[in-house]
Amino acid sequence: MKIIPEPFNNIFRFYYDGFMNMSDWGKKVWIIIIVKLIIIFAIFRLFFFNDFLQKNFDNDNRRSEYVLDQLTVSTTADD
Amino acid sequence: MIENVDLSLVDWSRAQFALTAMYHWIFVPLTLGLSFIIAIMETIYVRTGNENWKRVTKFWMTLFGINFAIGVATGIILEFEFGTNWSNYSWFVGDIFGAPLAIEGILAFFLESTFVAVMFFGWNKVSKKFHLASSWLVAIGANLSALWILVANAWMQNPVGMTFNPDTARNEMIDFWAVLFNPVAVQKFLHTITSGFLLGSVFVLGISSWFLLKKREEWLAKRSILIAGIFGLISILTVIYTGDSSARTISKVQPMKFAAFEAHYAGKGNAGLTVFGILKNSEKKIGEKETKEFAMRIQVPALLSIMTGGDSDFYVPGIEDLMGVGPEEHQQLSVSQKMENGKYAREVLTDYKRAKMIKDTAQIRIIRDIFHDRDFIENNFRYFGYAFLKIPEDAIPNVSVAFYSFHLMVLLGFFFLIVCSVALYILFRGTLLKNRWFLWIAIISIPLVYISSESGWVLAEMGRQPWIIQDLMPVSAAVTRLTAGSVLTTFILFAVLFTSLLFAEVSIMIRQIKTGPKH
C-alpha cells in the first residue's frame, strides 16, 4: 500500500536527487543562502529590525494617532 | 511634531537604505538579463539539438545560479527598513504598497522558486520542452516580480489612484489600474528591465571576450557574443527610447528633478541639451542655497526644448522658474505658494485631530467633507509635504549629484551601444580574435555597466529629494524617531553582510569562469 501519492513522491525524489547530486558551487551557495537567511531573519529581524509601530502600539487606532501626531502640529485637548 | 527631528538620523536612515538598495541592485539586473539570454540559448539548443548549445546554456546557467542564490532575500531587508526606520512613511502609504508587494512575493516565490529548481535539477529528468518552458518562466517571473516593486517605486515618484483617509492617517488605493498604469510606472518598468537586459548582455560579452583572450572555449565565446550582441543591441536601443520618454514624463511630473539633472537653472526656449559638462559653484544664490554653473560644457542647441516639448521654441522651465524667482511671464506655482497650500492642508488635518480629541462631531463631519473636496485635494493636499519644508530652497535636490549621475548613465549607455555594435560587426567580419583591444574593452565594460545601472537609481532617488513621496511627504517627515546611533549600528552590520555576500559571489563566479563549461 502506498502511503505517499505518486505525484508527491516524484516531486520529493526530484528535489532529493537534485540536492544529493549538487555540484560544488551549488553546495557552496546553499551554505551561503542558509547562513544569510539565519543572519537576516534570526539576528537582524529579531534584534535590530522590529516594526516600530507594531512593537510600540497595541492596535491600529493607536498607530494612526501616533502617525497623525507626527504629521500635524502639536495639539492638546485644551487647545 | 516632526520639526524637531535629528538631521543626522535622517541622513543615516537614508544612507542605510541607499546602501541596501544599491547592493541589492548589484544582484537583480544580472538576474533579469541573464535569465532571458539563457532562455534564448536553450531555445536554440532545443530547436537544433546541438549539444554544444546545451553546454553553453549550462555554463551561463551556472553563473546565473550563483548570482540568483547570493541575491536571494537581499531585497527583504528593504522591507524591514520600512517598518523600522521609516514607520511614518510605511503607515502613510497604507495599502498602496500592500497589493503590489504581495503580488511580487507570490510571483517571486512560486514562479521563480519552482521553475528555478526545474532549471537546475531538471536536466534529463523532465522533457526538453518542459525544461525550456521552465527557463522562460524563470525569466518572465523574475521580470514580472520586478514590475511590482517598480510600480510601488513609481507611485512614490508620482502618487496616483489613492485618497487620503484622515481617520487612519493612511492613503487608500481607489484605483488599482491607475497605480499599475501610472505613466511613471510603465516607463520605469520598461527602462529598468531593458537596462537589466543590457547589463546581462555586457556581462556575457565581457566574459566571452576573456575566454577569447585566453584562447579558450572559442565556440562558446563566439556564440555567446552573437546572442549577447544582438540581445544587447536591441536592449540598449530600447533603453535609449524608454529613457527619452521617461525624461519627458519626469519633466511634467517632477519638473524640479528634470531641471536638476540638466543643471538647468534659468528657464528658456531653444534650450540646449548638455551632452557633457563640468559644474562649478556660482556666485549666484537662490535664497540661501548655493547654485552651480558650467565650468565647461558640450551642448546640442535647442535639443532639450525639442525633446521635452517637440518644438525648438518650447520653454523649458528651470530651477529659478520653479522656485518663483525666474522671469515673471514664465513663473509657475512657486515653492513658497506650495508651502502655503500645504500648510493649510496640514492645519485642516490638525483641526480634524483636535475635533476628534474633543469629539466635536459637527466639526468632524465638516472636515471629512473637506478631505473629499476636489479643490482641496488638488490645490492643498497635493502639496501636503511642502508644509514640512523649513525654507523654499529645501525643495531643490543636490544638483551636482543629479547632474553627474544622469550624464554618467547616458554617456555609458551610448558607449554600450557602440560596444554591442562593434562586437557584432567584428564577429560577422571574422576579426574578433585579431581585435584584442576590443576584447579588453568588453571586459572593462562589465564594471562600467554596473556603474551605469547604479547611476540610474542614484538619479531616480537623489533627484527627487527632499521627497520620499513626491510633494506629499519629505524624508524628514517619514523617518522613525530612533537614535542616529542605532541606525548607524545597523548600517555597519549591513555593510559587512553585503560586502561579504558580494565578495562570495565574485570569488565563486571567478572560480567557475576559470573552470569553464563542463565537457
H/E element string of chain A? HHHH
- Quantity of strands of chain B, as a count: 6
Strand order of the main beta sheet of chain B, please?
1-2
Assign an overall shape of chain B: globular
State the separation between the terminal residues of chain B, measured CA to CA.
Answer: 67 Å
Integer average pLDDT of chain A? 81
Radius of gyration of chain B: 25 Å
Query: How far apart are the termini of chain A?
Result: 78 Å
Q: Give a short account of the largest sheet of chain A.
A: none
Strand proportion of chain A, as a percent range, falls in under 5%
Radius of gyration of chain A: 25 Å
Runs of chain A in which pLDDT lies below 50 for 5 or more consecutive residues are 75-79
Helical amount of chain B:
55-70%
The number of helical elements of chain A comes to 4
What pair of chains forms the biggest interface? A-B, 40 and 51 residues
Number of helices, where a helix is a run of at least 4 consecutive DSSP H or I residues of chain B: 19
The low-pLDDT segments of chain B are none
Please, could you describe this protein's structure?
The complex is a heterodimer of chains A (79) and B (519). Chain A is mainly alpha-helical and 79 residues long. Helices cover 72% and strands 0% of the residues of chain A. Chain A contains four helices and no strands. Chain A has helices spanning 6-20, 24-48, 52-56, 60-71. The longest helix of chain A is centred in the middle third of the chain and has 25 residues, at 24-48. Chain B has 519 residues and is mainly alpha-helical. Chain B folds into three domains: 7-254 and 397-513; 259-330, no CATH class; 335-393. Chain B is built from 19 helices and six strands. A two-stranded antiparallel sheet of chain B has the order 1-2. Chain B has a two-stranded antiparallel sheet with strand order 3-4. In chain B, a hairpin with a 4-residue loop joins strand 1 and strand 2 (170-173). The longest helix of chain B is centred in the N-terminal third of the chain and has 42 residues, at 7-48. Chain B is globular and about 80 Å long.
